Amino acid sequence: MALDAKRAGILEWMQIPRWPVSDERERLLIDEVLAGRQWGGFHEFVTRFETKFAAYQHCAHGVSAANGTVTLEMLFAALGVGPGDEVIVPAISFISTATAVSRVGGVPVFVDIEPYSFNMDPEQVEAAISPRTKAICAVHFGGPLANMDRLLEIGVRQQFPVVEDAAHAQGSEWNGKRAGSLGVCSSFSFQNGKVLTAGEGGMVLTNDAALAAELRSMANQGRRPGASHFHHFTLGTNLRLTALQAAVLLVGLDRLDEQIERRTRNASLLLDSLREVEGIRWQQVDSRVTRNSWYLLLGRIDEQRFGMSRDAFHQAMQAAGVPCTPFYPHTLYENPLYRDGVSPCRVLPCPNAEACIRDAFWMPHYLLLGDEELMLQVSGAIRQGVAA
Ligand SMILES: Cc1ncc(COP(=O)(O)O)c(C=O)c1O
Question: What is the pTM (predicted TM-score) of this model?
Answer without folding.
Answer: 0.96
